[in-house]
Specification:
By secondary structure, the protein is mostly beta strands. The protein has strands at about 5, 10-15, 20-25, 30-40, 45-50, 60, 70-75, 80-85, 90-100, 115, 120-124. It is globular, with a radius of gyration of 13 Å.
Length: about 120
């Protein structure tokens, strides 16, 4: 059974940085795409970034391009989201997700497995 466990959220001032981690277990993820999504109160879940586990190809939402970096560590079965130059509008619960297939999808309905989420709060 696939398990995704996020960690690394917290409270940070605007302009600061955080690194989120997603520990994946339950199967071999070489044929999977991993994604990060976020959901702020009263808003829909939105795409942040995705990475192909096998090729390392990445894609980002325009709102985070140049500030966030998604990466993976094959040996640790872990995906990271490095978040720099954080803004108050980045405040949300951040979710890790996985889907079988190498195509980088940005729609949350394309993902099959989800973590429990980790809260990120950016103060102004």
């Amino acid at each position: 059974q696939v398990q995704l466990v996020e960690s690394g959220g917290g409270l940070v001032q605007a302009g600061g940085s955080l690194r989120l981690s997603c520990a994946a277990s339950g199967r071999t993820f070489s044929g999977y795409t991993m994604g990060w999504f976020r959901q702020a109160p009263g808003k829909e879940r939105e795409f942040v970034a995705a990475i192909s586990w096998s090729s390392g190809s990445t894609t980002y939402a325009d709102s985070v391009k140049g500030r966030f970096t998604i990466s993976r560590d094959n040996g640790k079965n872990t995906v990271y989201l490095q978040m720099n130059s954080l803004k108050p509008e980045d405040t949300a619960v951040y979710y890790c997700a996985a889907r079988l297939g190498g195509v980088l999808r940005s729609t949350y309905t394309s993902y099959d497995y989800w973590g429990q989420g980790t809260q990120v709060t950016v103060s102004s």
